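User: Sequence recovery, please. Input:
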């Protein structure tokens, strides 16, 4: 069993930031995994990691390496209570490859903000239009 901190990381960390997404109304990530038969009874999707390796061709035809993190019991309140204990949350990792357009198509909106070494992450900025 391996224990780790859930966060994004790359080799050098030249850019750091945050991401947020809205689930799609029709086929979101959870529904997609269910359609593929990858979510077991009683599991809830608690995390998604997406990784893209070195791109050598523009536009990239390289698939994202995606990991879905699934926990039991399969409801938000039970998982939140388990997280709030401060103990590591046991999850099942499901790995799959996904083209970027399929990955982003499973979300209604997706926002990524990166700054050089994270220097302005969460900080106020001012700019002229």
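Assistant: Recovered sequence (129 residues):
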């Amino acid at each position: 069993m391996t224990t780790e901190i859930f966060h994004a990381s790359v080799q050098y960390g030249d850019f750091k930031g945050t991401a947020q997404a809205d689930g799609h109304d029709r086929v979101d990530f959870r529904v997609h995994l269910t359609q593929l038969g990858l979510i077991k009874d009683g599991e809830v999707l608690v995390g998604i990691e997406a990784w893209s390796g070195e791109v050598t061709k523009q536009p990239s035809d390289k698939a994202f390496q995606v990991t879905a993190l699934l926990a039991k019991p399969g409801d938000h309140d039970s998982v939140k209570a388990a997280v709030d204990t401060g103990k590591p949350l046991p999850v099942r990792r499901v790995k799959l490859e996904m083209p970027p357009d399929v990955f982003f198509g499973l979300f209604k909106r997706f926002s990524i903000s990166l700054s050089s070494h994270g220097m302005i992450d969460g900080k106020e900025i001012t700019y002229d239009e």
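The helical segments are 29-35, 76-84, 100-105.
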